[in-house]
Design goal:
Length: about 240
C-alpha cells in the first residue's frame, strides 16, 4: 500500500479516535452545525495532515480532507437519531475512508489493486466465513433444539442473542487460526472458553445444562474446524 495513503489513514485514526473527546461528540450531537467542537475537530484533522507529512506543501490535500470531513460529519449530525446512531457510525467511517482514498487517488494518482476480487480463492474464503456465521447458527439450533434445558426463572438472564454472537465470533477465530496455520490457538480458545464457562456450570448443578453446553461447544468447534480445513484444502 502507498505510504501517502497510509499517512492519510493514520491521520484520520488519530483525529477521530484519539484526539476527539467524548464531550466533543456529545456537543456535536446536541448542537449540530452550531457546535464549536465540530469546527475544532475539523481543524485537528487538517493539522494532523501537516503533521504526518511534516510539510505545509500538502495544504491542498489537507484542505480537501478537511472540507470532505466537515461535509460527512455535518450530514451525520443532522440525520443522526438514537435509533440509527450505531448504523450511522459505521456509515460515517466508510465515507471518511472512501473520501481519503479519493483524495489520495486524485493528488497522487494512486490506485488500489483489487484483482483479488476475481480470484476464486477469495470467494472460497468469503463463502467459508459466511457459512460459519448465521447458517451454522441456524444449523446448530436445529440440531440441539431437542436438548434445550428448561428455563429457570431464578437463573441469571444473559444478554439478548449473546450466545449466537459468541458462537459466530469463536467460529470465525477458529477459521482464521486454521487458515493461517496456527492450530495451537484453537486449543487456547477452547481452554479459555472452558474456563469462562466453568463458573456457570459449577453454580448450575445441572447435568443436563452441562451436557447441553458441551454439545454446543464441541459442535461449534467441530463445524468450524471441518469448514476451515476444507477451505485450506481448496485454496492450497
Amino acid at each position: 500500500m502507498d505510504i501517502y495513503l497510509i499517512k492519510l489513514i493514520l491521520a484520520h485514526l488519530i483525529g477521530d479516535f484519539f484526539l476527539q473527546p467524548n464531550s466533543w461528540v456529545k456537543d456535536k450531537e446536541r448542537k449540530k452545525l452550531k457546535s464549536g467542537k465540530l469546527y475544532m475537530h475539523i481543524a485537528v484533522h487538517v493539522a494532523l495532515i501537516f503533521l504526518v507529512f511534516l510539510s505545509f506543501g500538502v495544504w491542498k490535500i489537507a484542505l480537501s480532507i478537511g472540507v470532505l470531513h466537515f461535509i460527512i460529519d455535518a450530514g451525520k449530525s443532522l440525520f443522526q437519531t438514537k435509533k440509527n446512531a450505531r448504523l450511522l457510525f459505521f456509515i460515517d467511517q466508510i465515507f471518511h475512508v472512501s473520501s481519503i482514498v479519493l483524495v489520495w487517488h486524485f493528488f497522487y494518482k494512486g490506485y488500489l489493486d483489487i484483482s483479488f476480487v476475481n480470484d476464486i480463492k477469495t470467494w472460497v474464503l468469503i463463502a467459508g466465513i459466511l457459512f460459519l456465521t448465521m447458517p451454522t447458527s441456524i444449523i446448530m439450533k436445529v440440531i440441539i433444539a431437542k436438548w434445550l434445558p428448561e428455563s429457570d426463572d431464578d437463573s441469571p438472564k444473559s444478554l439478548q442473542n449473546a450466545g449466537k454472537y459468541i458462537g459466530i465470533l469463536e467460529r470465525t477465530l477458529i477459521f482464521v487460526f486454521i487458515i493461517t496455520n496456527h492450530f495451537e490457538a484453537v486449543g487456547f480458545l477452547l481452554a479459555a472458553k472452558s474456563i469462562f464457562r466453568f463458573g456457570d456450570l459449577k453454580e448450575a448443578h445441572d447435568l443436563k445444562l452441562t451436557e447441553y453446553v458441551l454439545i454446543g461447544t464441541l459442535l461449534s468447534f467441530g463445524i468450524a474446524i471441518v469448514v476451515a480445513l476444507g477451505v485450506v484444502g481448496w485454496v492450497s
